[in-house]
Structures are given as C-alpha cells and as structure tokens.
Amino acid sequence: MAEMTTGRDGLRDIVVDAVNAKDPDLFSLADDIHVPPSLLDRTMEVMERWPRMMLSRGQLDTEPVAAVWLPDAEGRYARVGHLEFDIEDGSARMEIVEEVRGDLVSEPPAGLEVADWEDSEAVGEGWLV
C-alpha cells in the first residue's frame, strides 16, 4: 500500500485553492487519495450558489479547516462557517459547519473589501449598464 502524502492539511489547501480559483480541476492535485464525485459535486453546488464565496486556511485546535467567507451587507467579507476534512480508507471527506466558532484561527481571504465593480450598488453604473 502506497504511503499517503496529501493528508488533511494538503486536502484543505487543495479545496481552498480550487474554490478560490473556481477551478475544480485542482482537485486532481490530490492524486494519492480518492476524491469522490459526491465531494466534487457538493463543492460545485456551493460555488454556483455563492459565486463570491471565498475560503481561507484555518485551524481549530490542531485540526486543519477552511474558513468560509461571504460578502456582508457592508460590502466586506465576513466568516459564516468552516469546512472540516477527513481522509478515511484513502477517500476524502468534507463536512460543512454552519457555525462561526470563536476558537477558529484563520487567515483573512485574499481581499476583504468587495471591489467597487462587484458592489450591488454599482450595477447600472459605467460599463455595467
């Protein structure tokens, strides 16, 4: 049996990069573990439902997680939950936790401010007419 090298930290990093880049092909980087089609389908559904969602790397105690960020009413990204990862019998699993825990330590997403052109108030202005 081949030694697994991806681990939960690596799986978390792949999911964060794939979601933020909107590129499900990045899941192929986890070539030493099985990423079931159900995990890919669930990730694609979430990305389609919240296209401006961003993930960032985080920790709960010693467990690697991904913090889930969505734009709030003030046009700033706010944490709304996190993703937990597990690898069981060589197969990746992900759980969505819709809770903002105070002990979650995470990086902020790449851009905390929503760009002016993304703001709902900007619709109909400039070239977005």
Set down the secondary structure blueprint.
Elements: H1 7-21, H2 37-49, E1 54-60, E2 63-71, E3 77-88, E4 91-97, E5 104-106
Task: Give descriptors for this structure.
five-stranded antiparallel sheet
Oligomer: single chain
Low-confidence stretches: 122-129
Strand elements, count? 5
Structural class: alpha+beta
Strand content: 25-35%
Distance between the termini: 58 Å
Q: What overall form do the CA principal axes indicate?
A: globular
> How many helices in DSSP terms?
2
State mean pLDDT (0 to 100 scale).
81
The major pleated sheet works out as:
5 strands, antiparallel
Tell me the series of helices and strands, N- to C-terminal. HHEEEEE
Radius of gyration: 16 Å
Helix content: 10-25%
Strand order of the largest sheet: 4-3-2-1-5
Can you describe this structure in just a few lines?
With 129 residues, this protein is an alpha+beta fold.
Characterise this structure.
This protein is α+β, with helices and mostly antiparallel strands and 129 residues long. The chain is built from 2 helices and 5 strands; from the N terminus they run H-H-E-E-E-E-E. Strands 4-3-2-1-5 form a 5-stranded antiparallel sheet, covered by helices on one side. Strand 1 (54-60) and strand 2 form a beta hairpin.
